[in-house]
Amino acid sequence: MEKRLRSSLQTSAEEFLSAAVKLPFKSSKSTIKTLINTVIKPSSSLISTLPLSLCNSISHSISQIKNLSDSTFTASPVTPPSKRVRRSGRNKKDDGAHRENERQPIAEKLQVYAYILRLCVFHPQNMFSVSDLLPAVQELHDNLILFESDSILLSEIANLCEEWWKGDLLGKESLISQSLPVILSRSLTLKKKLDVHRVYAIRDAFTLFDFEDESIEDLKNLLIRCVISPLYLKTEEGRKFVAFMFCLSVQLTKELCAMIKSQIPFGRKSMLEAYGEIVFRAWKAVEGDCKYEIENGFLQGLVEGAIYASSAALATSIRRILLGFINQRTTEGVEKLIFYLAEPVVFRSLQVANSNVRQNALHLLLDLFPLEDPDATKEAKDALLEKQFFLLEKLLLDECPDVRVVAVEGSCRILHLFWEVIPSPTITKIITKVFDYMTIDACTEVRLSTVNGVIYLLGNPQSHEVLKVLLPRLGNLIMDSASVVRAALADLLLLLNDIRNFHFHKVVHIDVLFSILADDQPVIARKITKLLIPSYFPSKVTEEEACKRCITLIKRSPTAGARFCEFAALEGASLRSLMKLFKILIGLTLSSNKPDEEQIEGLLSAASHLCTNIAKDASFHAALKEELSAKKLKTLFSVAATACAQSSLCNIISTMSLDAVGDLFDECMGLITNCSGLSDNIEKQAEVRSAHKMIMACGWLDDMFEVLVEFLQRAACGCHVNFGIELGKQNGRSTTRMKTKSSMTISSKLKHSNQKKSYNTDKNRFLEDYAIAVGVAWQIKDLLLSESTREAMLGSGILESAYSALKVISEASFIHCLQHDYLNTYPVSAYTTLTLHMSLQNLETDGSMDSSQATILDQTLDHLLSCAYNVLRANNNKKFGKSLSDTGECQTGTSLTKQIRLSNMVKTLTVILKFIVDATTMNLAPRYQEKCLNFTTENLKFITTNLKEHSNAQWQFTEEDRKDIFICLKSSFTYGAKLLNVVLKTCEVSLPQAGAQGLVNELFNLIVSVEEFLGYGFAARLISVVQPWVPDLILALGSCFLLKETPDEGLFSDSSDNATLSLPSWFYILARIELSELRDAGSDEETERVRQPKDFSAFKKLVETMSKLLKANNKILDAVGVNFLTGALSALRSKNFNVILGLLHFVCLKVVGTEDGEWEELKLMLASLGEIYSKVEIEAEEVDNSEDDRQKLYSAKALLEPVWKSFIYDERRHSMEEE
């Protein structure tokens, strides 16, 4: 190969080029390079002939490519193509491929020519004349557009032009117009740092372009793309190049600034900081109009935008770009520029009425501080500085909490940075306000910012002398109501502990710290433990001394000492030292000195925590078991007189799974059976759970469950006696069960007869039994949460006895909850939870249930629904009072008593609703969907009715009561919406339409009732819960019509059902909202359903969301829109003209619109609209209607008329003409 090339090189230039293009390009490159660099001599004729031959060969090849390109643009036939066009289409594709095959060899030749040309241009001995080579290079450059499909050739030519420019060769300006866009485009497409470097290296070439010319648009677009390219923003040279672009043209500068502005709302922090750096570089480099545009067009707009931004996030993003200048304020001219831009607007904005503007302006001032004119006199600078401090002090007491938060953090930041140069009187004034006012501020965020600001201020040692005096004023914040404030103060104390000459106990008294350690949340208690470890369990003293100090802590504050031991291992205490401490604690508990009950609780609780931490290391298990012998455990239980102490022992035993505990069953069961009031006592719940763990660890769960069931049976028998509720039949398995250890041990305590005549009818005894049964119900529900205990319970032989007893107690608790205060929801909750788990236990592998399990769930559903309907029916018919008075059991009671009973009723209904939704979601009750929908609807009606009655009765709810009510309302809505979701998913054709329609209307009624009777705050919170369910609500609204394809399927004719249709309450509210937009809602006569004027702002936002979703799908819009139109028709029949006008305004202007194209696909709505229009037209002419009513009807007619004329009237006219 080399020989052929060498011989051709000696013949002629044309022969050499002809031979070179016949060889594979990649493999021949090195050979060609060697021959050109070494064989060609200065005296060779090739010096003059090769450039000319290259130019001719390149021109010839380019002509061939042009001819091929021109042949693709043949004229198309005038007549439309026949069906055989598909075959001709394939032929065209084949022709295109054929032409591409012809083009490929020509492109490969050009690659070789371009390579040889480059070797000649950059020959090591510069043998070739640049002027001779320029025509060939020019030919390649001018035809670059032909090579777009060949990236290799395109890159080869662009590289040649780039090197020509870098070499400052003759005619370099003529090789830029086509190559530069290629190089720039490649950097944006390939996204390689090397390409960005190459663009930056030839940046001066861009100055040759006229950026005011229209033909430059493509290049300008490429340059603007660089502004949003992550690669250009990440690399140093990329940012420099973007900054350089500002120098090219005033118009380009404007467009670059506009592009950067458009990215601010969405830009990440790094991106915005890069923009700040870019604009600063550009500002330094440019002059004249470009500089003016940056200063007065871009930066001035940013300063104003940072102040008047619509959100705090947007203001923050803008300030990040401005920081590119603020951080360079020492650069000449920057300080003057900042003052020139900010001074006119910042001080004015700090005193405006809008709190958001004040907050944004304060943020900007803090970033700019100190804002000063470098050219001003000292007196002017001092006056301006004093003005800034004055405004800062004023904003510390601003009426807006968000402004105060920024002011206190900013004040501490300024003091930290400029303490040495700020006058002492100014420091005193600011810091006094911070400690005297900010620490007792009503806003949690302000108090938190105060603590964080002081922590930051401590970073300046100059402040320590002053803070040493003032810090005790912060001490009360350790007992703040907000946990975040307490945690921040604990961090402050930890910081003080590391600063010389500061003592944390002078800020917060040690007894207060003990109190916080004992009672506060784990995260705060751990911080306090870390604070106290150097004093009460130091690692630098002997183990004996460390243990002695810890014992001192436990004796001084037993609860605090126990919490200290809980977190000691996490804060670095060695397990070996803790093991020694554990032994000492056990020894002190058993000592002859007999500590008091409180100290015993502390010692055992501390030992329990230590045992938990030590047991994580298996190497200590043997030592722990040796320390906890059977004799010691028995003695410890005899010493542990309180439930808390016994709970700690249970934790120790369950942690170590000790075997020697055979005699401790009675003590452990004492904890479990003493469960009166358990459901409301969190501490007691923790104690019972400890006992459960021990029972499980010892294998006594069956015995414990038997005892619990006996308590339930006792309470069930009491319900039978007191309320006449029938006792269920006991399952045979429970009667044949062998006497267990538990039944023999406590039979003397629990033995009783289930016969009515032998039952103790004393009311106090029943109340006690019922209270214990509530605690047992809580335990059963809690035990079902754990997989291990759940499996053991569901496998018990007396499970059905528990189920039967809970069924009786639940019935009594539900039916009589409006009569008695002591009845509780937990039996119902345990009853439903147990039913679900029993139903799921024996599910077959294919997911279906056997007949017995189906019966369990069916029985529970039938039972609860029957009870619910009895209660709701009695409430609706107002018969409760009479029936209760007949029994002598009812006392009307105070309004507080009624509230308690009603609250229990709502909670019970919510529990049942949750059970229904869970069963439906798991497809355990497919036959009950209609019943479940109806029950949920009646439940929501009951809630909304009582909300209205309570509002009318003006019951005084405490804030805590309101929160409890709202939780129930939120749960009721969520479960109702979830039920709708499940029903809509599982029902394909046989959708329970009436049930779904009724339920969704009651859900909307609940939303408007909450806003009407509880206020906007609760409604806004409820709307946040509603938002995820809006699509389901919309589908349910249209469920009656979604399967209708045509308007003649029994839609809305003059049927009796529609004639007597009762509008849901929320339709009236929706109509009112629409009317308020038509005119000021003064004292217009409204429906009785809406009694007081309300804005219903929260509901209005929900309606706006619904409108947006409805517009996205015409089929759903058609089905849902018919609902509103049918409601309007019903309102027309009842002569409620306010409602018809409001609903039609909503449909015609908010949801659909009056344009022809928007109604074209809404067949069902058009059919309904035609009927409404004719009836409105007739009603408007009725002489009995008042002038005001006729005006409303005319307004409604005007809304319908454009659509009626465009569709219905024309359609009827055409049909008549055809007939």
Account of the 3D structure:
The chain is mostly helical. The chain is 72% helix and 0% strand. It is built from 60 helices and no strands.
**End-to-end gap:** 91 Å
Shape: globular
Q: Please count the helical segments.
A: 60
Major sheet details? none
The number of distinct β-strands equals 0
Kindly name the structural category. mainly alpha
Return the average pLDDT rounded to an integer. 83
User: What Rg do the Cα atoms give?
Assistant: 43 Å
Q: Which bin fits the share of residues in helices? A: over 70%
Unreliably modeled segments: 73-90, 731-760, 879-892, 1049-1060, 1081-1093
InterPro entries: ARM-like (IPR011989), ARM-type_fold (IPR016024), Condensin2_G2 (IPR024741)
Protein name: Condensin-2 complex subunit G2
Organism: Rehmannia glutinosa (Chinese foxglove)
Pfam families: Condensin2nSMC
Short description:
It comes from Rehmannia glutinosa (Chinese foxglove). With 1219 residues, the chain is mainly α.
Key descriptive features of the protein:
Condensin-2 complex subunit G2, single chain, 72% helix, mainly alpha, 60 helices, 1219 residues
Give the SSE map.
Elements: H1 2-11, H2 13-21, H3 25-39, H4 46-71, H5 85-121, H6 130-142, H7 151-166, H8 179-190, H9 193-201, H10 217-227, H11 230-234, H12 236-245, H13 250-263, H14 269-285, H15 288-308, H16 312-326, H17 334-349, H18 355-368, H19 378-396, H20 401-418, H21 424-436, H22 444-457, H23 464-470, H24 483-497, H25 504-507, H26 510-519, H27 522-536, H28 543-556, H29 558-568, H30 575-589, H31 597-614, H32 621-627, H33 630-639, H34 643-656, H35 665-673, H36 682-698, H37 701-723, H38 732-735, H39 741-745, H40 747-750, H41 763-783, H42 787-794, H43 799-815, H44 826-841, H45 851-876, H46 880-887, H47 895-921, H48 929-953, H49 959-986, H50 993-1014, H51 1016-1026, H52 1030-1037, H53 1056-1059, H54 1065-1078, H55 1097-1110, H56 1114-1133, H57 1137-1151, H58 1156-1159, H59 1163-1180, H60 1187-1218
